[in-house]
Specification:
Shape: globular
Number of strands: 0
Largest sheet: none
Mean pLDDT: 87
Order of helices and strands: HHHHHHH
Helix content: over 70%
Number of helices: 7
Structural class: mainly alpha
Radius of gyration: 18 Å
Strand content: under 5%
Amino acid sequence: MKAITKKILSAIVLIALGVGGRIFFVNYIGIPNLEVVSSFALLSGFYLGGVFSFIVPLAIIFLSDLFIGNNAILLFTWSAFGIIGLMGIALRKKATKLTRLLLWSGGAGVVASCFFFLYTNFGWWVLSGMYPHTWGGLFACYVNALLFFRNNLLGNLVLVPLVFGVFFVVKNLNYKLIKKYDFIRQRH
């Protein structure tokens, strides 16, 4: 199978898992800002790289927003997840073994949470009309969003390493199965 075909199929799987995960977390878990999109955005950057690191999270957000909905700051949320996907590319050089991968991906989850908090709440302050466009209004916007930040941060501390760990195990198991299958095929 060609490398680009594998990447496209992998992107489709990540998008499907991300959309399903986001809808599940919003509709059944119901904890504000506990989300899986950062996990799949970082993973797409790490595993697929290139344009896929941006396309996968945007596709997840677009498709899941069709079910969940969004508001005026979608420009900020969508671009934030696209940028988080690009952050996943930086993990490639840092994480080669499982323990390093889990540590670095957890750190990337923290960075992603901080970036998302600062960037999207700035967008909320600019576009929502809920806060005055003063330094005090911006400060109030960030203070009132701390609960959402906490949920996002705790979620990313757990979900990002979990998704990366599952990916690592599945990828290595798949590699071993392919190697075994090739060995059997070569014997006949």
